[in-house]
Design brief:
Blueprint: H1 3-6, H2 12-22, E1 27-33, E2 36-41, H3 42-58, E3 66-70, H4 75-86, E4 90-94, H5 100-110, E5 114-117, H6 120-129, E6 138-141, E7 155-157, H7 158-171, H8 175-182, E8 188-193, E9 203-207, H9 208-222, E10 229-231, H10 239-252, E11 255-258, H11 265-272, E12 276-278, H12 281-297, H13 300-321, H14 328-349, E13 356-359, H15 366-374, E14 379-385, E15 390-394, E16 407-408, E17 413-416, E18 421-425, E19 432-433, H16 437-443, E20 450-458, E21 464-469, E22 474-475, E23 481-482, H17 484-492, E24 497-503, E25 510-516, H18 518-527, H19 535-539, H20 542-559, E26 570-575, H21 595-601, H22 603-609, E27 615-623, E28 629-640, H23 648-652
Parallel strand pairs: 1-11, 3-4, 3-5, 5-6, 6-7, 10-11, 12-13, 13-14, 25-26
Antiparallel strand pairs: 1-2, 8-9, 9-19, 14-15, 15-16, 17-18, 18-20, 20-21, 22-23, 24-25, 26-28, 27-28
């Protein structure tokens, strides 16, 4: 029996009641609205949740019902989760940027009778598909703006549902407590849908025990307390946000802050200054790009000072952070760098108070990872999955390695199968995929071991090293190892590269598609007086091709020093005519490349990369955010990269 079960604290409604009782006056939720931060205490959150739970019951929400939750990170949407759970329901968060057809699949598959959405935009999406969702009976919306003329009887304002709930609560004394008492740790707590990298998203069924035990174990491992604070800005439908913003917030009692909008995240990050911060590699890449753009625009003396002290940080910053011995003079230089460069930089980024940061979702480039740690930021890689309730491995303090994802998290067992696939067993192992017994049987063994689909190995110290997705790792025709994600991450270290897709399995050499970073390259072009009309125009400029070629050449020089990967240097590349986009099906909603889709859609370009051609004409349809489409034409130049003989870089050094 777990500690939580033994003490009766095995569901989120019960944990909420505990937090309201023992830390009722401490902040639980924050939200920036109209430029002002608003705060709710744990006691106030408990009242809000109770009113909403009773309001749902008044509208006919029954035990076992599914509640779809759609919108940006908002306290009121987070409160809907324990509200639904309190009366025996199951929340089903949905990616807020999903198009209507994607939402239809999730709501239909999950059999949602109720949906709670943020605003008019999400209501309109549901109205577009409601005739294809016969099970959907009730839609609750939070923001009334723009909803004045919506008269459908199944639409209900969030605040009025809470009013109904308070009336229902008063008329049914003891109802709420009795419903909460019926819950148990083994009950289904939430359904989170996978990103669908290789096919239709799967509904992952997680119990209260899965989430609470995993969240508590990791929080205790890291020493998180009620005094910590986190900024919640990643999709609520993603398991990482759920374990941090719900699981760990409720088990430790810390505060979760929500930004005003997706566009103000970096500004709100600076204002909140969280002590606990999570971001996928792409966010850290974007932040680094912003930093480098500002440095490029700075005075020459500031640039020299920045690069000098960053060289000092790169040499000793990580060792100082890990408490390892460092020569006295280097410590003095680092201290001066903290005053002149690192401290101001962390303050501008809003990371001054951060004592713990995680990155996960996909591998982060070692250079990017080392950059942040060199500043004194305790950034760690963790390895996890939806099926694990996130945590599989965590990097331990004092033993951080950029080439590993750490050691097994508390309560987790890891083994590597004969074919090199990583498998795990833990308290967070999911119950099943909803309505998909075949996929469940393929992923989870009868004795509880889960296939991750990732290839990796445990080193002599017990650290797990992930090479790539098992299905993506391949070899060139000469037998050289081809690990596409590793190569792509090295490319994305450069601020001018936002995305890359590499090819090589079963081929004579490695080739690459590259998406340039429009902001970084645009800034670079403007400083050189290069006029352009948009992404496609700028991507086709010969000066930009040279700029990206320099990045590729540097990656190749680095690969030449690795005996195992020297043969997988990039021989040819092109800059894509458009940015890979989730709306075009090329990326998942968590921004992972759908390799199969890209390979099928751009087969002609791949064929050109493996020919003697130096260009390829292309016509493509692009989808804009408002749903409009347009056709673009481009003549893409194909560039040969410099290939460095193995060991040549070491010899030159």
């Amino acid at each position: 029996m777990s500690v939580d079960t033994a003490t009766g604290l095995d569901t989120f409604p019960r944990l909420l009641a505990l937090n309201a009782r023992i830390r009722g006056g401490k902040p639980a939720s924050r939200e920036k609205d109209y430029g002002i931060w608003q705060t709710w205490t744990w006691a106030e959150v408990a009242e809000e949740v109770r009113a909403l739970a009773c309001g749902l019951a008044a509208l006919g929400f029954r035990r076992g019902d599914r509640l779809a939750i759609i919108g940006d990170n908002r306290p009121h949407l987070y409160w809907a989760m324990p509200a639904a759970q309190a009366v025996g329901g199951v929340p089903v968060p949905v990616y807020q940027d999903s198009v209507a057809e994607e939402m239809q699949y999730v709501l239909e598959h999950a059999e949602c009778r109720f949906a709670l959405v943020e605003n008019q935009e999400q209501v309109d999406k549901l109205l577009e598909i409601k005739d294809r969702l016969p099970a959907l009976e009730t839609v609750i919306y939070h923001f009334p703006r723009g909803m004045r003329h919506y008269t459908q009887p199944f639409l209900h304002l969030y605040a009025k549902v809470q009013e109904q709930g308070r009336e229902f609560d008063a008329a049914h004394a003891g109802f709420y407590e009795a419903e909460v008492a019926k819950g148990a740790g083994a009950d289904l707590a939430v359904m989170l849908y996978t990103s669908g990298t290789t096919g239709r998203p799967k509904g992952v069924m997680l119990s209260f025990d899965n989430i609470i035990q995993t969240a508590r174990n990791a929080a205790q491992w890291e020493g998180l307390t009620e005094d910590d604070e986190m900024l919640a800005y990643l999709p609520m439908a993603w398991v990482g946000d759920h374990i941090f913003s719900v699981g760990q917030a409720y088990t430790t009692g810390f505060c979760v802050a929500c930004p005003e909008s997706a566009e103000t995240v970096l500004q709100d990050l600076r204002e909140i200054g969280p002590t606990y911060f999570f971001a996928p590699p792409r966010i850290f890449e974007n932040i680094l790009t912003t930093v480098m753009i500002r440095i490029e625009d700075a005075a020459s003396w500031k640039q020299r000072m920045f690069h000098y002290f960053m060289a000092v940080a790169g040499r000793v910053g990580g060792d100082i952070l890990d408490g390892k011995p460092v020569p006295f003079l280097d410590r003095v230089k680092y201290k001066l760098g903290e005053f002149l460069v690192y401290g101001p930089l962390k303050n501008v980024l809003g990371l001054t108070r951060m004592h713990l940061g995680y990155t996960a979702g996909e591998a982060i480039g070692p250079d990017i990872f080392d950059f942040y740690r060199s500043l004194g930021l305790n950034l760690k890689q963790l390895y996890g999955s939806t099926e694990a309730s996130v945590f599989i491995t965590i990097q331990p303090n004092g033993d951080i390695r950029s080439d590993s994802v750490g050691v097994p998290a508390p309560g987790v067992e890891i083994r590597v199968a004969d074919n090199g696939e990583v498998m795990f067993k833990s308290p967070g192992v999911f119950q099943a995929y909803y309505k998909n017994d075949a996929a469940t049987a393929e992923t989870k063994t009868p004795d509880g071991w889960v296939h991750t689909g990732d290839a990796g190995f445990l080193d002599a110290d017990g650290h797990l090293k992930i090479i790539d997705r098992a299905k993506d790792v391949g070899r060139l025709t000469d037998g050289t190892l081809f690990a596409p994600k590793y190569l792509e991450n090295k490319l994305k270290f450069f601020p001018f590269v936002s995305e890359a897709v590499t090819f090589g399995n079963g081929r004579d050499y490695v080739a690459a598609f590259i998406n340039m970073d429009l902001e970084a390259v645009g800034n670079w072009a403007e400083r050189r007086g290069l006029a352009y009309t948009g992404y496609t125009d700028l991507a086709g400029r010969p000066e930009v091709l040279e700029l990206i070629a320099d990045c590729v050449d540097k990656v190749n020089a680095d690969l030449a020093q690795d005996d195992k990967l020297a043969g997988s240097q990039i021989r040819r590349f092109l800059i894509l005519h458009k940015e890979l986009d989730a709306d075009d099906g090329e990326l998942t909603r968590t921004r992972k490349v759908r390799r199969t889709v890209v390979a099928e859609r751009y087969g002609d370009l791949i064929a050109a990369l493996y020919s003697d051609r130096d260009h390829c004409e292309v016509t493509a349809t692009v989808t804009f955010e408002d749903g409009r489409t347009d056709t673009i034409h481009a003549d893409l130049k194909i560039r040969d990269a410099k290939v460095v003989p193995p060991g040549a870089a070491r010899a030159a050094a």
